[in-house]
Amino acid sequence: MHGTNEHPAIYASVARELYVTHLAPDYAYVPIEEFYELPHFDAAYAKARALTADFTDVSVSALEAALQAEPTVLLPLRVITGPLRNEFAGSTKIVSEALGLRPLSAAKVDSMERSGTPVSDEQARVAAETIDRIMRGTLFGRPRGELKSKQDKLQRVTKPCDLNDRMISIVLTLRGMGLRTF
To answer: Are the C-beta atoms of residues 123 and 113 closer than 8 Å to each other?
Structure first.
């Protein structure tokens, strides 16, 4: 028999054995769905590559046309530039206000990436402008203190470069990390 003073230690032991080992942050796991598998990303990446002439034409108008032709290209463009789905949707609010347009919701971003849900001209423009501003580093102001832009995390170029060079640099960096970029 155990006294009531020993109950917290017993409960803690049981919790460690049965429960704690299965705890993980929300971002540690994703559902088993085709959307989260490499073939879906690879297909969207191949389309983005084709629609942007191997990422050499990433002007706003080219991105807008690519997004209208194949909305799933948003997935690799968003992943390459860095923001999570909700972060990207939030970023479109900044851009849409400046353009006098409506932002994309996280659900719209998801449906574009997941199933290629068609987009209006306005939605394609907001998404293209957001990607462009992320790539140019103009979406947000300069970071203060010891911070750097999230988009600079993979950037190894130390001099200013144009947008095409930056996209190519990111793709080459991803390849150097062992990630397949075709």
So the answer is: no
Asked if residues 47 and 41 have their Cβ atoms less than 8 Å apart, the reply is no
pLDDT at 122: 98
CA distance 47 to 50: 5
What pLDDT shows up at residue 181?
47
**How close are the terminal C-alpha atoms of the chain, in Å?**
65
Q: What is the DSSP string of 61-108?
A: HHHHHHHHH-GGGHHHHHHHH---HHHHHHHHHHHHHHHT-PPPPHHH
pLDDT over 70 (residue 97): yes
Length of the chain: 182
pLDDT in tens, 35-46: 778 889 999 999
User: What is the sign, positive or negative, of the torsion defined by CA atoms of 79, 82, 84, 87?
Assistant: negative
